[in-house]
Amino acid sequence: MPGAGSGAGPGPGVESGAGDEERVARAALTRVIEPGDECGGRWLREFGAGELLARLASPEYEEPALPGATARRLAGYRMRVAAADPDRDLAAVAAVGGRFICPGEQEWPTQLDDLGDGRPIGLWVRGQADLRKWALRSVAVVGARACTPYGAHMAASLGSGLAERGWVVVSGAAFGVDGSAHRGALAAGGATVAVLACGVDVVYPRGHAELIGRIAEQGLVIGELPPGDHPTPSRFILRNRVIAALTRGTVVVEAEYRSGSLVTARSAQKLGRFTMGVPGPATSGLSAGVHELLRGESVLVTDASEVAELVGDIGDLAPDRRGPVLPRDLLDPASARVLEAIPARGAVAGDQVARGAGTTADEALGRLYELHSLGFVERRGDRWQLTHSAIRSSNARRGGT
Fold this sequence. Notes:
The protein is 44% helix and 12% strand. It is of the alpha/beta class. The protein folds into two domains: 95-311, Rossmann fold (3-Layer(aba) Sandwich); 327-397, Arc Repressor Mutant, subunit A (Orthogonal Bundle), CATH 1.10.10.10. The chain has a nine-stranded mixed β-sheet, with helices on both faces. Strands 10-12-11 form a three-stranded antiparallel β-sheet. α11 links the parallel β7 (249-253) and β8.
């Protein structure tokens, strides 16, 4: 499993990239600019964190100093800047064993840069592992909050199966599929990352206090929002783009047509990531969104090995899908044709068997005696019939009862 990150206290885990001033300015901006704000991201790219913070804080800077910013929007930003205290936030995240990482630093997952101007300003992180290393081999498992027992079972099975194969399971720590995927990974002693739509020191949902605590100890809890900040509906939706960008692929387990999980999957598709869906009953509304994905460019998967084969490297192959090997499957082709020529009920003469198998009477007779010694057929006078065990085997092969 990848090693832990370095450092402690405000701004740890940095060996290259952003300096202290840049980190402090970006920490402040996480209180000012909402996640996914591409206009703010463009300003950040053009002016740098320190200069942008200064422009937002000073009333001397007006439009067009910040292209696209109306007077009303600037006023809103400036109210937030006035209330921002990055030193307090950095101390708060350090108090819960966390840190703040920025683009350009060693621990920054560079795949988040695929989001362009919508990439996070920085990430608040709890946990000892190195986020960049973990994200290199990670898969998102997301789905309905109000999932069915089937959905919970499939999510937990995927979580544990991926963890056993050395994959990091990423999800949003919500009720339902998210929580089941996290628990599956934890139960297998594996790695899991929770991406929150609030501060990493905030427990949301409340009912997952123990789970989020376990993830922080055994895995990583990350988010774009500073300590103490609360979730909103729009922040949940915007959080999903981080889940999609961070991972190699996204698996959706149960989702209605308007589910936020579909937002994650579509974000993954736009970013060129793999998107997968677990099928469910055609009559279930909770499977409707997944089936919609599967009618498009997403791939149907049923277990962790299929997910690993799709998103993994050469050698991560799922086992061949086939039923149990039956004794008759091991017969050579000629004997199998003779056996198939004997009806399920009643006895037939050897010459009838030969005609049915397309062979000579002598060849058929020799094969019948071989089949007799193997327990497939029995002789009744000059006629041959299947044994009871052969009939059961034939029914099983054909899906009968």
